[in-house]
Amino acid sequence: MNVRRPHISGAALAAVAVLGIGSLSACSTDSAAADGRFDVVASFYPMQFLAERIGGDHVHVTTLTEPGQEPHELELSLRQRAELEESDAALYLSGLQPSVDEAIEQSGLKTKIDAADLTKLEDHGDVEHDHGHGGGHSGEEHSEEEHSGEEHSGEEHSEEDSHHLDPHVWLDPVKYAEIAEGVGTAFAKADPDHAADYRKNTDALVDRLHALDTEFRDGLKNTKTKVFFTNHASFGYFAERYGLTQEAISGVDPESEPSPARIKELRDEARADGVTTVFYETLVSGKTAKTLADDAGLRTDVLDPLEGLTDRSKGDDYFAVMEANLTALKKALGAR
Predict the structure, then answer these.
(1) How far apart are CA 49 and CA 305, in angstroms?
(2) Nearest alpha carbon to residue 177 among 119, 137, 111
(3) Cβ-based neighbours of 322, under 8 Å, separated by 6 or more
């Protein structure tokens, strides 16, 4: 639940920090200030990864979402708000974590980098009420006219319709590369002394993301089926990029419960479309996915939406986990 909090002034937040009510993550911003590094607070893992790769040794990065914590449910503490207020920049994705959006909006930060402003966001619909628009489709299923009506830039969408935009853009390597370009530009502007290094690091990261895109295109080009089942609707952009159809048990909210009608619909579709596997993820319960798999005689496997890393993740960074996702999808879809 997104509960509106009263505005907390910068002075009050500073007082909280001075009183020593904990600190954010293992390192404090004091250490960053002492060694002169550009201090960035990232909202959750995909933003943290960008900041670390682009910033390199010049940037001190902390994250508001701890490893293993479900980012959709994050509620910021006073000490986290104090750390945010004292940082040089915040890197976040509006629409994913209301508590973070509110705190950054209220902060006095000069550099606020919203990834939603750096690429196009789309409305992928509600799988429970709009089957056939559920959570991701082949790009071939929509005309250019249809898509143009569904896409929004971060600068264009209002607060009201932002609730309907799918935030999971980092799972599309091409869109993630667009965000990386914008983050690199923002870092260079905010910390011009190291602009050349930020540009170099950004170029290397973008090249690696484009190489990953090629791996997915080649690996998923020829498959027995184009349909995959997921626990919640996080792979919409990914599905569109690679000509697949995602069918999510739940909606964009990973904790929402599917209706009995939705479960029956998925069982029938599994038979019709040759679906072999129900995917679940590491940060939320896979109970519903496993129940559906048992009922329909399907396998289960992990398809990681990379909202955070844990000791159960199949890799120790974005690229390693995405490679594991590719391996799992090739098996499930019957790649030739």
Answers:
(1) 14
(2) 119
(3) 173, 212, 306, 315
33 contacts 275 by C-beta, under 8 angstroms: no
pLDDT tens profile 113-150:
999 999 999 987 643 333 333 334 433 333 333 333 34
Cα 314 from chain centre? 17
d(CA 69, CA 316): 16
Q: Are 157 and 165 in contact (CB under 8 A)?
A: yes
Cα(288)–Cα(327) distance, integer angstroms:
23
Q: What is the DSSP string of 103-137?
A: HHHHS--SEEEEGGGSSEEE----TTT-TTSSS--
The answer to whether the beta carbons of residues 202 and 179 sit under 8 Å apart is: no
Which of 27-31, 169-173, 279-283 ranks highest by mean pLDDT?
169-173
DSSP 101: H
Contact 124, 135 (CB under 8 A): yes
Helix/strand/coil for 88: coil
145 sits in which H/E element: helix 144-150
Find, among 336, 327, 325, 317, the residue nearest to 50 by Cα.
317
Query: How would you class 192 by CB atoms within 10 Å of its CB: exposed for 0-12, middle for 13-18, buried for 19 or more?
Result: exposed
- pLDDT reading at 6 higher than 80: no
Predicted TM-score (pTM) of this structure: 0.80
Percentage of the chain beyond pLDDT 90 is 58
- Between CA 186 and CA 313 the distance in angstroms is 30
H or E element at residue 39: strand 38-42
Cβ contact 68:281 at 8 Å: no
**Could you say which DSSP state residue 160 is in?**
T
